[in-house]
Amino acid sequence: MPSPPSPTDVGCWSAFRHPFRRWGRKQEKPRDGDRDNETPRKRKEKRKNVEIRTELKEAVAEIELDILDFEEKEREIKKDLETLRVEFEKNQAEKEELRQAEEQLTREMEAVIDEDRMHARKYEILGKKTATHKRIQVRVVVVERKKNEEQAQEADRKTPTVSEMEEMEEEELETKQEKEEEPLTETQKDEEGVGEFGIPADLRDLIEKRGRLKRLMKTMEQFETEAERFLLYNIRRIRPFLSQEATQLLVQSLVISRLDYCNSLLAGLPLRAIRPLQLVQNAAARLIFNLPKFTHVTPLLRSLHWLPVVARIRFKTLMLAYKAKNGPVPPYLMAMVKSRAVPRALRASSTARLEPPSLRTHGRQASRLFSVLAPRWWNEVPLGIRTAESLVVFKRRLKTHLFVMHLSE
Question: Per the confidence metrics, is the pTM higher than 0.85?
């Protein structure tokens, strides 16, 4: 390769610019800050390139943001798909359980239908026997009712009325007076069994009167308790179809109301005469709670707030005494009750007591009279009850007192 000519040989570099340009001085590139050497075209291209780069960067940033949003949406869609899958599996499990339950119910229904068919066959066989048995039971009940009605009619015929008893007593007195006027022989005295003072004859009359009273009380007890037991029997037949509240209302309206009707006339009777009525009340309490026969009754009466029959009789008697003392009552009841008269101002004048009549004037047989029992029971009641300001307060306090006295633990 030939060597480049020297500047001494050549007069000017311009003559050898083109062929020997590569051996010449290298042209320096223009710097960024030096814009004097750049042409306008290059500047324009440079600006375009910058704009294109910024646009590309913005587009890349937007694409990256879109990619992030897409990824987030993709994750949410995956979560929704997972929840839908879990719910679908649960629904499938529930459907399977329902199908199994339906199959079990169908099997049970088929078993019940088979049992019903077997029972129907048995009932077809025993239908005639049950029908005849029911007819026999109905006939027996009808016969028993007829017998009870006949017995009640006979008892009514045998039990004398008040006028008949007064006539019988007058006849007995007349016969006694006639016998006293006619002198008896010794043989008649021996036959009659009369002594010197006539004591055995009086004893015999007293025994006869007591016998009549016993028979009368027995018929009354039978008549009262049979009707109430018949009502309890009918209520017991429909007890499976009634609630406890409905049974209580039914028993109170049909049975307990009969026990309370005119029960003040039973005041002073012995406990053996009141025991049948107490047994009826016990049976009614057991029927309300649907308990067996030999269940203890005191907790049942306490939960029902029922007083025993003895306490009910005393409650009615004392209520009549309060009305007779404070009014308003008929005059004949006010005449039976008298307040205790105190001659001067003493502590006893504020106790609101009643004056009991003396048994010497009325006799020992008059101890069951209202005029005798009411003052005695009234004076036994506490002072707070005797001095009640109204009948409602008196009844509430008296019931509480009797409840504590008869049904306290």
Answer: no
